[in-house]
Amino acid sequence: MTVLLPPSETKREGGDPTRTLDLGALSFPELADERAAVITAARSVSSEESTARTALKLGPRSIAERFRNLALDGAPTLPAIERYTGVLYDPLEAASADQATTRWWADHVVVQSAMFGPVGAGDRIPAYRLSHDSRLGALRLAKHWPDAAARALATRSSGLVLDLRSEGYRALGPVSDAVVLRVVSIGAGGRRTALNHWNKTAKGRLVSLLGRSAPDVADMDDLVAWAEEHGVAVERTADGWDLVAESLEPVRA
Fold first, then answer.
1. Is position 83 within any domain?
2. Domain membership of residue 47 as a residue range
3. Is the dihedral of CA 236, 173, 56, 115 positive or negative?
4. Model-level pTM?
5. Any domain includes 230
6. Counting Cβ atoms within 10 Å, is residue 3 exposed (0-12), middle (13-18) or buried (19+)?
7. Which of 89, 96, 132, 232 is the most buried (most CB within 10 A)?
8. Are 163 and 175 in contact, with CB atoms under 8 Å apart?
9. How many domains does the chain have?
10. What is the H or E stretch that residue 141 is in?
11. Is there a contact between 245 and 199 (Cβ–Cβ < 8 Å)?
């Protein structure tokens, strides 16, 4: 089983200063040239405040994030699963997870980064600023990543591929046979409503539970059986597969 996650705009600062970025040590090392090209382009647009503001969509409060892209080579690194923060990643509590959980994530979770392409959850990366829709001059992420990332993902994606990425990041690394899980809320009369912002929280809770229970999942039948065992509703519909957000709400005392 492979779980595909989007990155997050927000990143945790810091990391191990003795372990800086090593493109050759990242998962999918065949993407080294593509990664180097994006880093070069990101560094170029980040070198001036005026170009960084437009290219990276930075406001007055975030403009300093351009300096992250200028310091990628020597910046401290963290595992990707710890680097990202926000409503999807906070429920993971990755920094305090035990070794068995961290190992399951490293073996089964891939994050689709705009800067580095797909990376394993355990890959060590620095903080950076780049989104799927960032503008890097002649280098267009929407053309640069899809073919190369899709080929790389195909080498790892045997068995079930559960795609929890947002649309913009799915486009950067298409996986044709992946199962896209839609997060829904069920209201009065059983009406299903697809969630937007808060769908990330449900996805984070799902990946947290997967890591901490470390299931052996080969296909959707296995995933549904695991979900039922843990009180999580993963349901087949006419449109695909739904994850019911309420089934992942924390139990209140």
1. yes
2. 2-248
3. positive
4. 0.94
5. yes
6. buried
7. 89
8. yes
9. 1
10. helix 141-144
11. yes
